[in-house]
């Protein structure tokens, strides 16, 4: 049985960690971009951000003034048991979000869409979002917090099978150009692409591809993995760099996730994570151990399963 007090204390620590510390995989990718950037303003922005990250870590302050909208991803092993059940879990995550807003501090960005009611704690109707995944074995819980910009940097289009790869490329480039020219995202960033599903799940796939995979990771489908490499290079070939200035490093990496869709369509979403790639992960074991890491490890073979029943041996050999 995992105590709800341990869940809340772990969540408190994750909220601060995500706001303050850049994950190593992203930091390495950003340093590589800075080392090759030759656009004057883009180079200036990248160097300033790298210095800012170091200052934030030393001073234990949020790395960006706009701390986005905190959200939670929870993955449970099938044998996990929580004191008080799922309702207690969600209450603990809401409390941790509220307390971190004042303790870190985070900017209180959540308001009612019509009345603009602001509780000053990033908690309200449907906020923070809590999404779930499950794994067949284990008695642990993974807590993942992501602080993602909540305004722009996303787009959706209903494509059709006849549009093919060229259509996917066109929309990808259209989106990146709009993000850069109109200031709709903070570049460079990890770009997530969702293909398929329904409209809502397509958006979810793209956002998770941007936020829950590490720089350098590749889709296990070799053809999709090749597209990820190609799209990363393609995104960096359009003449834009940091914050939309002239440059050649707009994309730190591109990740693609797919879901089965209606036979007549090919839904596509594009999501830019933030220049401050904010995520933090911890696994809470039933014996009270807590292991912190930076890789969400969300897209496991089980999460990508295609069969009616879970057949791990078959999945591993296909």
Report on this model:
With 318 residues, the chain is an alpha+beta fold. It folds into 2 domains: 4-18 and 61-149 and 279-317; 151-277, no CATH class. Helix content is 38%, strand content 20%. It has 8 helices and 9 strands. It has helices spanning 4-20, 24-36, 40-59, 85-103, 164-181, 199-211, 222-235, 312-317, and strands at 69-77, 130-135, 141-148, 154-159, 189-196, 251-259, 266-272, 278-284, 290-293. The strands form 2 sheets. It has a 5-stranded mixed sheet, with helices on one face. Helix 4 (85-103) links the parallel strand 1 (69-77) and strand 2. Helix 1 runs parallel beside helix 4 and helix 2 (24-36) runs antiparallel to helix 3 (40-59). It is globular, with a radius of gyration of 20 Å. The model has no long low-confidence stretch (mean pLDDT 94). One of its GO terms (molecular function) is fumarate hydratase activity. Residues 10-282 form the Fe-S hydro-lyase tartrate dehydratase alpha-type catalytic domain. It is an enzyme of class 4 (lyase). InterPro entries: Class-I_Fumarase/Tartrate_DH, Fe-S_hydro-lyase_TtdA-typ_cat. This is Putative tartrate dehydratase/fumarate hydratase classe I alpha chain, Fe-S type hydro-lyase.
């Amino acid at each position: 049985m995992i105590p709800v007090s341990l869940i809340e204390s772990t969540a408190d620590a994750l909220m601060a960690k995500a706001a303050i510390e850049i994950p190593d995989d992203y930091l390495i990718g950003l340093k590589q971009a800075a080392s090759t950037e030759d656009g004057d303003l883009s180079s200036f922005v990248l160097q300033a951000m790298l210095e800012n990250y170091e200052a934030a870590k030393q001073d234990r302050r949020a790395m960006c003034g706009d701390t986005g909208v905190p959200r939670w991803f929870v993955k449970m092993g099938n044998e996990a048991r929580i004191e008080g059940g799922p309702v207690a879990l969600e209450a603990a995550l809401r409390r941790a979000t509220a307390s971190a807003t004042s303790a870190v501090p985070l900017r209180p960005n959540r308001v009612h869409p019509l009345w603009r009611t602001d509780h000053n704690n990033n908690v309200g109707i449907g906020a923070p979002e809590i999404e779930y995944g499950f794994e067949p074995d284990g008695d642990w819980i993974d807590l993942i917090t992501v602080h993602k910009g909540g305004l722009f940097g996303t787009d959706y289009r209903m494509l059709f099978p006849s549009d093919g790869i060229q259509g996917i490329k066109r929309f990808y480039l259209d989106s990146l150009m709009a993000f850069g020219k109109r200031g709709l995202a903070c570049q460079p960033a990890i770009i997530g692409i969702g293909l398929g599903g329904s409209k809502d799940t397509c958006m979810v796939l793209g956002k998770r591809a941007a936020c829950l995979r590490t720089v350098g990771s590749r889709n296990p489908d070799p053809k999709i993995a090749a597209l990820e490499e190609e799209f990363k290079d393609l995104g960096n070939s359009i003449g834009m760099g940091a914050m939309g200035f002239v440059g050649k490093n707009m994309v730190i990496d591109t990740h693609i996730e797919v879901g089965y869709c209606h036979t007549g369509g090919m839904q596509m979403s594009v999501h830019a994570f933030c220049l401050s790639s904010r995520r933090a992960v911890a696994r809470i074991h039933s014996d009270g151990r807590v292991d912190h890491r930076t890789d969400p490890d969300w897209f496991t073979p089980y999460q990508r399963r295609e069969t009616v029943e879970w057949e791990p041996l078959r999945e591993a050999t296909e």
